[in-house]
Amino acid sequence: MDFKRVYTTSKAYIILLIVALVLLVATASMAYMQILHMQKSSELVKHTLRVYNNLNILTTHYSKAESEEFRGELLKTGGSGQVFKDYRQEGLDIIDNLKNLTADNAIQVERLQSLSILLDRLYSQLQQLDAVNYKNSQEAISYKQSQKMKINGTLFHIRGLTNQMLSAEQNLIQEREKAYDSEKALAPLTLLMLTFISVLVFVLSFIRIYKNKIRFRESEAFLKNVLSTTDNIVNYYEPIFDKNNNVVDFKIIYANDCNRDYFGLEPIDIVGKQVSHVFPFLLNNGELEKMKKSYNEETKEISDRHIIVQDEKMWFQSLVTPLGNGILETARNTTSEEKAKEIQLTFNKRLEKQNLQLLDSRAFLGNIFKSISHVIMHFKSIRNEKGVITDFEILFVNERINPVTGDIPEDLKNKLVSQVFPNVFENHVFENLVNAIELNKPQEYEAPYERNGITTWFSATAIKLDDGVTVTTRDITEEKLKANELIKLNEQLVIRNSILNDAENIAKIGSFLWYKDSDKFEISENLLHMLEMETSVFEISYETYKSFIHPDDLVLVEEKSNQSNNNAIPTEYTYRVITKKGNVKHFKTNGQLLNKGEEDIMIGVVQDVTKTIEAGVELRKSNLELRRSNAELESFNRVASHDLQEPLRKIQLFISRIEDKESENFSSKGIEYFQKVKNAGIRMQSLIQNLLAYSRIDSSRTDFETIDLNLVQEKVLEDLATNIQVANAIIKLDDLPGIKGVFFQMEQLFANLISNALKYKSTIDTPIIEITSKKIAAIDLPENVIRTNKYYYKITFTDNGIGFDEKYADKIFEVFQRLHQKTEYSGTGIGLAICKKIVENHNGFMYAKGKLGEGAQFIVYLPA
Question: Structurally, how many domains does the chain consist of?
């Protein structure tokens, strides 16, 4: 038999070939992609240069408007002349070219839109230069001067936007040139490496195939050796199909030497023949069908068979397993085992007969013990050398022991009493058993037995029998329980009354019973204390209780009492009482009418809610004060958003005009003072905006929505991209969770904290900013934090900047508090105050940790 055909296939080699081809295609594809990347980088550089050149053309275009010569030509030809039309068309063509070239850059598109608006404004202002023609009158001169100032202001803004776009394109050129140089250098190296990898894969594949071939040969030799030495019949069959492709029989492909040993069949003679012809007994017991099922369904089939070989009965256990294109049958000779089973079965039958005879003799006695409800045990005494009884051996226990101890009687036989019942020496049972034997007198006693924490009491009688003792026990647990039940109930009643009195006193609650027909009124002791009365001197009825009710609330109490009587439903209301000492208290009552026999009874509970009502009054006062504070804050917002900013805008406008017109006439000292005025205006505007942002954070917002903090983080980093690049900072990010909150407030929180880290960066080390997130339980929060949720997200902003002294950790979150002079670091001192207010608005908590020269950490806890 060719064993390779049975247990090997060509799949492994096909897979190796496919892998090699895939790697070859992959190497060629990667080389091709590298070339495409180089072409793309080259195109990007050319594209950026075109944008840069068009921006320079635009600069030349709007610079004409500054020329007095060009303005003179406009005045000669007029606002609707050909010079103006050509000039305007030239600008529109440049803008259109730039729009096409910057369509892929959202930031440049936005700047270009603003630039287009400013150019339209410039054309309008140039057109209006000759709108008033009073020859050389003073009014015309004044108008033209005003118009020229507007044109210069517009040109200032156009120049600023154009410079921003030129700077951005210049940065893009540098980045794309670097990318092109990098890809140009990597292309040949990548191709060489991929070629080397392909050759390496082919060599490894050849080595692998060669080693597998050697291993297959070794496996074939090993398998032949195993099959030649085994005691089991091992045959391999392949299916025979009919016209409909159904399996009708099997052909013997391989047969080992055991076929000759057991059946007298030579393996060489039966190979190639049909299974049904060689082993016809397989057709009788359905084993051939099992073989078909094993092949078709790829399942293992086990069969037991017995056959007659040379007038001798033999048993075999057969295992059929799918293998390759056929099935493998392994048959084990179990003849010796089956014969041993037959002999054992004969002995078992003989033993069963003897046991039946013994059971008949014991049946009568067993029935007697089963019918008795008591536990009956017989112990044999064990004596020491001096003849003193030291223990007992259990000789008999009836089945009634099982419900008590859970033991099976047969398991207890021949065991020691001290082993089964270790408490026998402590509860005087052993003493009674010894006395029954030594005194030859029955002993009666009671003993407890504990199991699974439950104690059962028994009454026992011990009677001597030879040198042993027979014990009969009866369960008396119920009798013991009933005897103690009345005592326990009385004790519990006393305890419950004490607990109820203490609970009423702590909760300031009293109770009452009002028998309406007899006007008998019973109230608890604590209700007397609430009325500031002595227990022994007060006999009360409903009428006398009404004397404590505040005169203004008597009508209310009567109405509620009648309502409860008519509807027979619980009624709750609050009223005032005047105590015996003249103090006014607020009582809340809940009463219900019940019918007991022929008499109506009102039962109820009274609670002193004086402090609660007084607290409610204080709360309303606080709410009114809060409304007044909010109104003042809204007034401040209106002033800050308009009245304070309007004069500041005018100041900044005239600063801009002075800088454009008069800056050349300033002395060096004047330039320094003028720059300080300009910086002060910018700082004032930033301060007002930050104050507005701080005051507009509303802690009572209800428009919270689900926010993905990853999106917030991404947008903030995009807005601060220029600052990050200038600082050459490294940003390490973690996967952030989703929370309930306000998107723009979270955006402001992240922006302020990251900007702070960039502002206070180290002057020595490369700035590193790390943002991490972790979900924690509320119990792990700092002790001074008010917990409103079960879980929180801990978001940490870490930097390696200049840090701060830990003693200022609280001060930095206060408005206008700064740890540095404004000449050292810019800012308003409100940024961190805004951060803390945003976090608190989201029911969170925030604090900072730092060390001078080693960086800072800002830890934010937000509800999960």
Answer: 5
